[in-house]
Amino acid sequence: MKSYNGSPAKKVFLTAIWCMTAFYGVLLNADLRAQSVGGKGNREDASVIGNPSNPAWKESYKRGLRYQEQKQYEKAIAEFNAALKVEPGLWLITLQLGQAYRELKQYEKAIFYLSQAISKNPDPPFRVTAYLLRSVTYASIEKYKEAMDDITKTIELDPKGSTGYYKRGEYYLVAFSQPEKALKDFDTAITFGERSAEIYHYRGAALFKLGRFQEAIESYSQVLKIDPSHYSGLLNRGSTYLCLEEYDKALNDQNTVLRLYPEDVEARLDRVSVYIAKEDFNAALSDLLFAIDHGRKDAWLYLTLADVYYRLGELEKAIQANDKAIELDNNTFLQPSLYFKKGLFLLIRGSIDEATKSYEQGIKLAVDGRNLQSVELAARDISGASFSKEEAKTVASKITSQLNETQRKIAPMAVTNQGQCHKSRI
User: Fold this and answer.
1) Are 340 and 379 contacting, i.e. CB atoms less than 8 angstroms apart?
2) With a cut of 70, which residues of the chain have pLDDT below it?
3) Where are the alpha helices (DSSP H) in 104-211?
4) Which helix (H) or strand (E) holds 78?
5) Which of 110, 244, 322, 416 could bridge 102 with an S-S bond, Cβ 3.0-4.6 Å?
6) Contact (Cβ atoms closer than 8 angstroms) between residue 302 and residue 341
């Protein structure tokens, strides 16, 4: 999953914002006459384009715009500051300063200048741009309440504009985990004309989180109609097909991602799940080892590797991989399963005392964490295993009884981890 701050949607959105503010700068060329959105003249010309009797700031401002377009933000800031010395507080300049500081990730300065732009210009159509920029800047530093307040103001000022609903939906989904509200805003944005691949991508993620997988696939398919090589659209549609157990379709999307991005680890790890479901354990092993070779190290990966080695009959390698998973784990919901798997492998090997201790540790962790799911899986695994030693069979029967009793104990207060088929991927 790509990070929120670095998402393709954010890059597209900020490019659009820059184009909007640059367009407003073009107004300077119309004999310094201000025009607002919709063609209505602005009565407070000086607040919009400065004092016509002192146009010296304009050249610095234009140079700043050119530097901004060339992504030379320090030089752009120097020119905007020069313009600001001539026209202190002019909203158009402070808006561009806010944008330039945003690009440099100097978010507090960006917020300062964007706030000036909002306070200096009373014209609602222009304030929409400043509120939008300040909103995404707040989101960049995870001040989501402030980001939500600003995006709500843009909707109040421009109730038929699609961008405000789009961004508010994104916040509901990413920051507030409210997919129902997110979906409503995404649909409103589409109604008002938003047709980007990213809006359908976020809409698919909201539907995915709601467990509405078939609708999520339809939304991701719309992404791919617009952009057939869309990384997240392909990856997430594949994951959704996996949740519906449509393994061949999932594999097709994952393979498409890997044709486009051969070194991608996320697609390979998604493909592992498909290979395991199809019992192609050698292929699953290849992708897991690729992920490890490319720097991926976490408890889930090594637990999966342990299970794949076990299914391939490589018991000692399974034990080693499981021990690595325990080493990497950091008190997660996965922890009881790590000890249950270790106990199973040791019991099959005939290490009775070590296996018993591992199961005891797993049961304790499961009870403490109210993790019913891990106990259910452990009971299933031990019942399906084969043991060569009679003592191991006897101990396995005893452990099975303990696991069944633990299930009855935990069930009334269980905490469930819904797994990958209920997690949104943005």
Assistant:
1) no
2) 1-54, 122, 416-420, 422-425
3) 107-120, 124-140, 144-157, 162-174, 179-191, 197-209
4) helix 73-86
5) 110
6) no
